[in-house]
Design goal:
Blueprint: E1 4-12, E2 32-34, E3 37-39, E4 47-52, E5 55-60, H1 63-77, H2 86-102, E6 110-114, E7 130-134, E8 139-146, H3 147-163, H4 168-182, E9 189-193, H5 211-223, H6 227-250
Antiparallel strand pairs: 1-5, 1-6, 1-9, 2-3, 4-5, 7-8, 8-9
Helix pairs in contact: 1-2, 3-4, 3-5, 5-6
Length: 251
């Protein structure tokens, strides 16, 4: 099983009519492979429903659309790797275009990361938004905030990194996140969910995890020119996620 963390965008549920709720499989999850795709979740057109600040929200899963986006993005990023033939690439691009035209909600509402939470995701959140929750058989962590707060924070983080002379590739990853968030309207809620990636933490470490605060502290110190304090805060969060990230590189 691939342990996965998620960044999700939720919209008010009354904006999506008739979308059935997602029912995770109760049996052991299996990795499924067909042609260019590998996944471990059902492909039904459904949504993840939740309540936040007294209102109901839904995150459309759009699984097939997300798979198409992922395989095409991989092909663009690594053109020398023959994952798709040119005919397959054109066919998938056409299918993705058709899906996007079919509905106003046909977009990717979910970003996923195998084995770890990318540190740039934490830039969208504040420590007070952290919640330790029970995912059914084990504890996990999630953060939730409004889309406006998330965009403002990520924009600030990208500016701090750029002003401090970080490499273009580093800044670009954060601005790409800002661009993804900016596609959603003002009523959206954003959630970072460790989900079962939380199981990679050593026993007792999860309840005291403050990764978002460490990332923010590092950026605040960097903005003030205190490179020593910035480095210390960054090392705290980097060490915390080192073991989980090692699974990514080993796979």
């Amino acid at each position: 099983m691939i342990r996965t963390a998620y960044l999700r965008a939720y919209i008010p549920s009354d904006e999506v009519g008739g979308l059935p709720p997602h029912r995770p499989e109760s049996a052991r999850r299996r990795i499924v492979q067909t042609d260019a795709f590998i996944w471990d979740e059902p492909t039904a057109d459904d949504g993840i429903f939740t309540v936040w600040q007294g209102s109901q929200y839904v995150c459309p899963r759009n699984t097939r659309l997300r798979m198409l986006e992922g395989v095409l993005a991989f092909t663009r990023t690594y053109p020398s790797m023959p994952l798709l033939s040119e005919g397959e690439r054109l066919a998938y691009a056409a299918e993705l275009s058709d899906l996007r035209k079919a509905s106003a909600h046909a977009r990717g509402y979910i970003l996923s990361s195998a084995w770890h939470v990318p540190l740039r995701w934490f830039t969208a959140f504040h420590r007070i938004e952290r919640e330790l929750y029970d995912r059914g058989n084990a504890p996990s962590i999630r953060y939730r905030t409004s889309i406006g707060e998330a965009i403002d924070r990520v924009h600030w983080a990208a500016g701090v990194l750029e002003a401090s002379g970080f490499a273009e590739q580093v800044v670009e990853r954060v601005t790409d996140l800002e661009e993804w968030l900016s596609a959603f309207h003002a009523g959206t809620m954003v959630e970072l969910d460790y989900d079962d990636v939380a199981a990679t933490f050593h026993e007792g470490d999860l309840p005291i995890d403050e990764s978002a605060d460490d990332v923010r502290s590092s950026l605040l110190a960097l903005e003030q020119g205190d490179f020593a304090a910035s480095g210390e805060a960054y090392q705290r969060v980097a060490r915390r996620w080192a073991d989980a990230q090692s699974y990514t590189y080993s796979n």
